[in-house]
Design brief:
about 250 residues, alpha/beta, Rossmann fold, 7-stranded parallel β-sheet, two-stranded parallel ribbon, 8 helices, 9 strands, about 35% helix, about 20% strand, globular
């Protein structure tokens, strides 16, 4: 039986990467939500709504098995009033509506910016490359690098609360550097954090189909250079990335 999936922020880059790999998968029935109407063909039903609209989100949640929550202000320089309204209040609206609708799982699009301030003079790219114990694995304390990152930490904490309080299965994916094409070879940070469109679709497919309680995982491809560990994503979700930024050097 096909899974009914609500994808918020469907028109954004992550949403397009997911749909590019999974739109035609017969295992899914899609309901897409975005504040802007669609400009091209799309699978399933399209709901034009804002995630800060409680009533609209609750209506969109009806009959849904799993949610992939991407919607929010994606700007690294977004001001506090925007991240508070769109990224924190909006995310709480989604979690609350999911619980009330009996949704089983929520995959929350977090970000590498939730841990951006681990990139210090002491934790250089060279240290990440040569010392496995420097890899972040999701068990470390958050260290957001901007207010956008703060909002993602808040979304992760909300997910922890809704899991503990209501039993909602939540996986927070700290997405790296998602690009359709590989980053320049001299862009070390981009190489280390690269997530291909193909691996992005596969990762969120596993977020919908795997069994878990509450998890934080990193969303990157299987890059030779990396800042983040893929161990938890592999172990819990069955994530098997196919791409590697080093293959494009």
């Amino acid at each position: 039986m096909a899974q009914s999936v609500l994808l918020t922020g469907a028109a954004g880059r992550v949403g397009q990467a997911i749909l590019g790999g999974l739109a035609d998968d017969p295992e899914y029935e899609w309901r897409l939500l975005d504040r802007d109407p669609p400009t091209e063909d799309h699978p399933g039903e399209f709901v034009v709504a804002d995630i800060t609209d409680d009533e609209a989100v609750r209506e969109a949640m009806d009959g849904i098995d799993a949610v992939i929550h991407l919607a929010g202000d994606p700007r690294k320089t977004a001001p506090w009033d925007s991240v508070l309204t769109n990224n924190i209040d909006g995310t709480q609206t989604v979690y609350e509506a999911a619980v009330d609708a009996g949704v089983e799982k929520v995959a929350f699009a977090s970000s590498n910016h939730a841990v951006g301030h681990y990139e210090t003079d002491e934790r250089t790219p060279e240290m990440y490359r040569t010392h496995d114990d420097y890899l972040l694995d999701g068990t470390e304390q958050p260290r957001p690098g901007n207010l956008y990152g703060v909002s993602k930490v808040a979304g992760e904490s909300l997910g922890r609360y809704y899991h503990d309080e209501y039993g909602l299965s939540v996986v927070c994916v700290r997405i790296g550097n998602l690009t359709k094409n590989h980053p320049p070879i001299d862009y070390e940070r981009g190489q280390a954090m690269w997530l291909s469109y193909r691996d992005c679709a596969h990762l969120f497919d596993r977020c919908v189909t795997a069994d878990y309680g509450y998890e934080i995982v990193y969303g990157i491809s299987d890059n030779d250079r990396k800042y983040y560990s893929l161990e938890r994503a592999r172990e819990v979700l069955g994530y098997e990335p196919q791409d590697n930024s080093a293959e494009h050097d």
